[in-house]
Amino acid sequence: MTYLQALVIAVLQGATELFPVSSLGHAVILPKLLGWPIDLYGATFLPFLVLLHVGTAVALLGYFWRDWWILAFGAVGGLDAHRARESRYILLLLAVATVPAGLLGLVLEHWLRHLFGTPKIAALFLAANGILLLFGERLRARAPAEGTRALASLSLGDALFVGLWQSVALLPGFSRSGATIVGGLLRGIDHEASARFSFLIATPIILAASLKEVPKLLHGGVPAGTFQLALVAAFVAGLVALASTAFLMRYFRDHDDWALNPFAYYCLLAGSGSAAWFFLT
Predict the structure, then answer these.
(1) What is the mean pLDDT of the chain?
(2) Which of 7, 24, 147, 261 has its CA 20 to 30 A from that of 137?
(3) pTM score, whole prediction
(4) How far apart are CA 217 and CA 137, in angstroms?
């Protein structure tokens, strides 16, 4: 992989990890579309992508540092009793929401690795992701108007429900943020709160994956300079992710009635177009 290719994938990762359009799907589809000689099944490609995810996780920690500080400070009793209980409860919600994807990822690891390197499948799933986003918006629009729920009002069952939706993103082409935002919408919280919850639960999932995959870039058989290339790309991905997060939080706040629709139409077009190209050429 050249520096140019790595930086292109890094910019794409930084944007699409948070935009509900599947970073993994784009990382699998783009090299195939551009004819890049990158081995998607190679020993270093997945760890490379995971390190890019670490860059986005650092960006999320930076953007939401106040949220994490309040949660951590409250959890150790640094705030008043009510806010301390609320902080501990929200941390519990985040933990519960990460369990399904973590368990399924471990159980289905070998099968998922096979799908990961298949651009045709990723393109079909990307189109399906568009349908998923439209489905979530339509169901939410038909739900009774009961007001917006705060994160602390969610039950453990709600958190598990959102976590199950997050598991869909183990399939390349389905967006993690998109699936979790849809899950949040269906439990009665708005786009902005759903996005905030989605971005918060992204951090532990990404860091856990990095502990497993990133050390593979340091093995003796890895080409010299691979880890350094990945670090530069991760830094770029983090900068793009920081800008993307700032934009998306404002966007979801200002367009709560239809926020997912433009991303849904993009996924339908990009996914179906890429699939048609792959199957016909």
Answers:
(1) 86
(2) 24
(3) 0.86
(4) 40
